Amino acid sequence: MSPRREMSAEAAPPEPRGQWVPAEWEAAMAVMTRRLGMYVDESQRGTGRVTARRTPAELSDVLSLQRWIREGGMDARSLDDFLGRYLEEGTRLHHPGYLAHQCACPDLPAALGDLVHGVTNNAMSLYEMGAAAATVELAVVDWMVSKVGWPEQSAGGVLVNGGSLANVTSLLAARAWAFPSAWSEGTPSQAVLLAPVSCHVSVKRGAAIIGLGCDAVVPLPCDALGRIIVESVADVVEAQRRRGRKVMAVVANACASATGLYDDLQGVGRVCRELGLWFHVDAAHGGSALLVPALRGRLAGIELADSVVWDAHKMLRTSTLAAAVLVRRKVDLERAFRQEADYLFFEDERGGPDLMMRTVEGAKAQLGLKLFLNLAWRGEAGLGEYVAGRYATAHRLWELLRARPDFETPYEPQSNVVCFRPRDAPHERQQIAMRDWLIADGRFHLASSVVEGTRWLRATVMSPSTEERTLHALLDAVREAARQVRDMG
Known about the structure:
The chain is of the alpha/beta class.
């Protein structure tokens, strides 16, 4: 071998490290699909506990976290053991007894979408970073816009990571509409936001984030169940104007997180149109009723809104997170963000829109793919059947409660949320103690809400596995929890 050839061999670059090895991928995926398949099957059949409550210190030991962080070396075999322990210590949203929070029981297609994103990592806020993902998101947004009742040509939106960020983004659009110079000069001190006390916590949080301050959220008069009294809205607006304040937006619920009840969107929307006010509808949870002809009337008037938030990771069965910010005039969303970044935005041929210009996020996951795959797999009608079924099951729970004199409930449900309690355990500390007992028992996971100034147990029917026999078993378990709480004093 000549010296030249020897030098060339010695200078050859080392074998690349960190690349995926096909055999390793196949072994790991075999473990993942088997473990997750068992997990979903067991959960849907109601096997095992709904949720676990070990402390972080206990869980760290169970999962050997410090050893794995320190030493590494996990492979498919050890992944199998770790994943088994990990899944046992989480919360089973597919379980029929899961009736707690408003998080989706994710459908299979959405899970596949998460896998695609995890492998490809197309951060598609910039079109060149994921043209297919951006195009899918635009198609999904157009579909949601059409369900709201706006013309697709002028309306638009974007998907973001969660309803809280979606509400913040909507408020930024409202701020840009009401105060065009706010991006450069800041939010004027006289700006206020009108919202019911029952609005989601992210509304007040968003007001603080964008510079209004949470004290600038003026409560709208509501009835005993937290629904806006439409006749009072104009009076509140006038009272604020007399104080030298300008109403930036009016917020309504569709539906309220704590109760699942809908505001009168048509009434509030008409007042906002007459007074020239931005109308924002937080339909994060209840917007999916738009897919059901028999339920759509509960959102009558949503087409009067200037902005709407609608979460796919609630009743559209995508995994967390995928929330839509929808605006009646797409230009209003584009005006909300007026920042320049010459390393990202410059004159070239990109082929499509940069969605970064519509959101707080600099990089964004392929959120639209999850919802698109659910639609492609189940069809709009299939998703509508799921929504109708969960609403119907919740209403059936209310009927069972009404038929039992030992329970009380404050209202007839309008969604898949039901509040109730045993008549002989009405006190707040008893509600909390019963919930804790149920979680420790392992068969059911409930939340709680304050309605009419008092605390109630809250069931949110999310899992398709929750059926009639689940409801009967739930009421029996709650009765036993009430007895245990009374016996403990």
